[in-house]
Specification:
heterodimer, A: mainly beta, 4-stranded antiparallel beta sheet, 54% strand, globular, B: mainly beta, 6-stranded mixed beta sheet, 5-stranded antiparallel beta sheet, 57% strand
Chain lengths: 115, 111
């Protein structure tokens, strides 16, 4: 099993640009999570999906952030326009079923730097 | 609400023991423990469900005190490979089953 796949691994962009982060969950997993990790705030849940449907997006910082899951094998997290304070490592994780508190398997993360 | 982990950092010599604590202000259904090595993704260690269960993984074990809303992670005879940041994730009773992670405890094991 390839595990959770994220791309790109590193992204450097300028303030105001659109950024799209991509995630492929583990095959057969029904839940997908997007996290942001910073030194100041630790690991924060941004949004999670169950069976491709967004269940809780209360962690999304503001309207500049949006996430989609068009099918069971792909999800995107978009930031438009990006700001320097968005610089962080963004992790995608998947689990068999969020509702039962199953183990989450994390991807390698995307390190985003906004200049 | 984010659980509180203590201590924030631990420095050990190989072979020494360590305890990492995690406490919540809410009644808990479960506690998850993860370890993250520098520059890598968090990796699952174990889940503890309410009932005072204690689990073990090699020389790493954990307990969950439901009444005190606390969990502790025990690292026995630490090895160099134990170095990393340990996160607890707490799942409140009657909630969404999604863990909220603490700020993490940095563990450094020296030879």
């Amino acid at each position: 099993d390839a595990g959770v796949i994220q791309s790109p691994r590193h992204e450097v962009t300028e303030m105001g640009q659109e950024v799209t982060l991509r995630c492929k969950p583990i095959s057969g997993h029904n839940s997908l999570f997007w996290y942001r990790q910073t030194m100041m705030r630790g690991l924060e849940l941004l949004i999670y999906f169950n069976n491709n449907v967004p269940i809780d997006d209360s962690g999304m910082p503001e309207d500049r952030f949006s996430a989609k899951m068009p099918n069971a094998s792909f999800s995107t997290l978009k930031i438009q326009p990006s700001e320097p304070r968005d610089s962080a490592v963004y992790f995608c994780a998947s689990s068999l079923a969020a509702i039962s508190g199953d183990t989450q398997y994390f991807g390698p993360g995307t390190r985003l730097t906004v200049l | 609400q984010q659980p509180v982990q203590s201590p924030q950092a631990v420095i050990l010599r190989e072979g020494e023991d360590a305890v990492i604590n995690c406490s919540s202000s809410k009644a808990l259904y479960s506690v998850h423990w993860y370890r993250q090595k520098h520059g890598e993704a968090p990796v699952f260690l174990m889940i503890l469900l309410k009932g005072g269960e204690q689990k073990g993984h090699e020389k790493i074990s954990a307990s969950f005190n439901e009444k005190k809303q606390q969990s502790s992670l025990y690292l026995t005879a630490s090895q160099l490979s134990y170095s990393g940041t340990y996160f607890c994730g707490t799942v409140p009773s009657g909630g969404s089953y999604i863990p909220t992670f603490g700020r993490g405890t940095s563990l450094i094991v020296h030879p």
